[in-house]
Design a protein that fits this description.
Elements: E1 28-36, E2 42-50, E3 53-54, E4 65-66, E5 72-80, E6 85-94, E7 96-97, E8 100-103, E9 106-112, E10 116-123, E11 126-129, H1 130-135, E12 147-155, E13 160-161, H2 172-179, E14 183-196, E15 202-213, E16 224-233, E17 239-247, E18 252-260, E19 266-268, E20 270-273, E21 286-293, E22 296-309, E23 322-333, E24 336-347
Antiparallel strand pairs: 1-2, 1-15, 2-5, 3-4, 5-6, 6-11, 7-8, 8-9, 9-10, 10-12, 12-14, 13-14, 14-15, 16-17, 16-24, 17-18, 18-19, 20-21, 21-22, 22-23, 23-24
């Protein structure tokens, strides 16, 4: 089936903002994830931020700063490898380009809007592990190892606009303001190769998801306590995406989810159960995402196989802080399996060691 992959958006919307007249305080981010079909390597949220105010460094410990122009961007990323290995780094550079980004060793190019992106990394990121980052914030000074990555990302389904499938809950409008709109995500298939210094080249195929936000975030009050965001593309072409926000009452105040229908297009699903981050060490945790669509119940089961805490720079156990766990999760849906993403955030007061 032929899809209108752009979802009706102007092709120009897929490129970075560089217009000097655009409101710099609104902010923009692109983010890229990939998952090797064999579950060996994953890019767990390579996050590129511009405009607005963003932390220049370690996410949870960096001082926030306002960038001077749209060309200046911050990039932060964790690459997960075998046996809990993580390769992490960040940079603040003038890396915004007409057709993508070049900063922090990464080059991302929009070859055809909403259809094809490419990625290339050449660098020596900080070598750490899930265990080290679970113990606390890591110093940026530490062992480094050469790493090269090449990616070709072919979009598989139309964009999913945040808010299109949101349930009518009391916190809906407030949560959408905190998200920052417009924002879309899109799943893709990827071919690539990972080359770690001293190891054989590792060619792979897999899947991924990318996001693009170019709207102002307005966060007010202390209502936000957690987030549960999942997405995966299966071999048959089936896919799902879901995000829920946990309010300070302990109930979901925002729910926005979709599954593909028989045509392969996303349709609204009502979430009846979603995973939440309940403890710091989440690798190996088994989860269930339950939903209803057109009156019929369904369930997607998963197991977390790799994780990076706060983009791989470690947990902050300070009371009141929201920690983020970026994961590669093995999902099973009606007998079909794939690897996909699950980002879980939770305020420290609700977490246990």
């Amino acid at each position: 089936m032929t899809f209108q992959l752009n979802g009706g958006l102007d092709p120009a919307a897929d490129y970075p903002i560089l217009d000097p007249l655009a409101d710099l305080t609104s902010g923009e981010n692109h983010a890229f994830w990939f998952f090797d079909d064999r579950g060996k390597y994953a890019l767990l949220n390579c996050h590129i931020q511009g405009g607005g105010t963003v932390p220049p460094g370690r996410v949870v410990s960096g001082d926030y700063q306002a960038f001077p122009d749209w060309e200046t961007r911050r990039i932060i990323f964790p690459v997960a490898g075998p046996d809990g290995a993580l390769h992490v780094d960040f940079a603040v550079e003038r890396g915004g380009k007409v057709d993508g980004y070049e900063l922090g060793g990464w080059s991302f190019r929009c070859e055809q809007p909403f259809r094809r992106w490419t990625g290339r990394y050449r660098g020596a990121p900080r070598l750490t592990s899930t265990a080290e980052t679970c113990a606390g914030i890591i110093p940026i000074d530490g062992p480094r190892r050469g790493l090269e990555i090449d990616l070709t990302m072919e979009m598989a389904l139309p964009v999913w606009m945040r808010g299109d499938f949101a349930e009518d809950l009391p916190g809906r409008e407030r949560a959408m303001l905190a998200t920052g709109l417009p924002r879309y995500e899109q799943v893709y298939r990827v071919m690539g190769e990972v080359r770690v210094e001293g190891e054989p080249a590792y060619p792979f195929t897999g899947t991924g998801v990318r996001t693009h936000r170019y709207g102002r975030r307005v966060a007010t009050g202390d209502w936000f306590h957690g987030s549960s965001w999942l997405s995966a593309l299966f071999p048959s072409g089936r896919a799902f995406g879901s995000v829920q926000y946990l309010g300070n009452s302990g109930e979901a105040v925002y729910s926005d989810a979709a599954v593909t229908d028989v045509r392969g297009l996303p349709v609204q699903a009502r979430v009846t159960a979603t995973p939440w981050l309940t403890r710091y060490d989440c690798v190996g945790q088994r989860v269930e995402w339950c939903y209803e669509q057109d009156g019929k119940p369904g369930v997607i089961r998963g197991e977390i196989v790799a994780a990076a805490y706060n983009y791989g720079f470690g947990l902050d156990r300070t009371p009141g802080i929201v920690n983020w766990c970026h994961t590669m999760t093995r999902f099973e849906w009606d007998g079909e399996e794939t690897y996909g993403m699950m980002e879980l955030g939770m305020i420290t007061d609700r977490l246990i060691d």
